[in-house]
Amino acid sequence: MYKHISLPLILLCLFVLPSCSSHEYQDALDKGIESLGKRDYHQAAIQFELALKKKNGDEDASSYLEQANYMDEAVSAYEEKEYGASLESLNTVIANKGTLKTLQTEAEKLKAEVLADQETASSFEDTMKVVKELMAKENYSVARKKLRLLEKRLESEDSLSSYQPELAKLTKQVDLASKEQEVTQPEVKKTLEKSDEQRDSYQLYENGRYGFSMYYPKGLRMDPPPTNGDGARFFNDQFEITAYASHTNVINDEETIEMYYENDLNSITEEIAYQRITEDWYVLSYEENGKIIYKKFYFNDQVGTTFVISYPASEQEKYGPITSHIAETFTPSTNS
Fold this sequence. Notes:
The chain folds into 2 domains: 161 residues, no CATH class; 136 residues, Protein Transport Mog1p, Chain A (3-Layer(aba) Sandwich).
């Protein structure tokens, strides 16, 4: 009896299975299109993949899957503020002649939003760049005014929220640097007015190998010079100066002062109180473990010359003028 029943059953299955598969294909396709309408592009892509499994090589499912993936990538990139990548994906959707009309309209709408936010971010970044240039020129009052305008923009434009940490850091740097400027500028003036006294209080150091020189306070002890003759260290219980030089463009023949500057910035974990960079030198000053660190670096295509000064932050009044005098009288290397 079972032998007679099995043949009809087999024939029934052969007829029903393709029909079931066709139904599942259409169901997945419909759900995918529905998800596109809800802007759930990730879910739409999953449904179109299911449709392709039920109907391998189907042009509609394949085309819709591609469109859903591009839209999903565009949205993700936009959320990460990667505007260029987002626009690239959106342009692909818009340019595709097989794109669903509703999806193309949505892509064009999102593109307009991305372009607007991109322009807003670009404008914001340009102003932050101006702030950094003003800081380099020690024009802290104007820099602070521009920072206040940027803070107001942050409050009113949600798309700029990711800039909050960087803006807060810049604001703190301007505040610290302007306070230091208020302290050191009168001291520098006072120090320069005492030039005769300074000449009696300082002595000259000249480096025999690289040719740089500086005036350092008399009474400081000096470490035995290194065997390679690249510099010297002078110190007492509170104050320390280290000056040295080395060849540039040794490892990389296209070195720039910006490379050294960025490397130093990345190596400093403390808040920088003062920073300035020019075409051939830069200065960084910050407090670390209760000490003021002042570093100045000179760059040319043959030699880089550095001096670093450190002293207790509590002794700023005493050693600030000395640091300023050393910086004013330091002569970097021009030797090859």
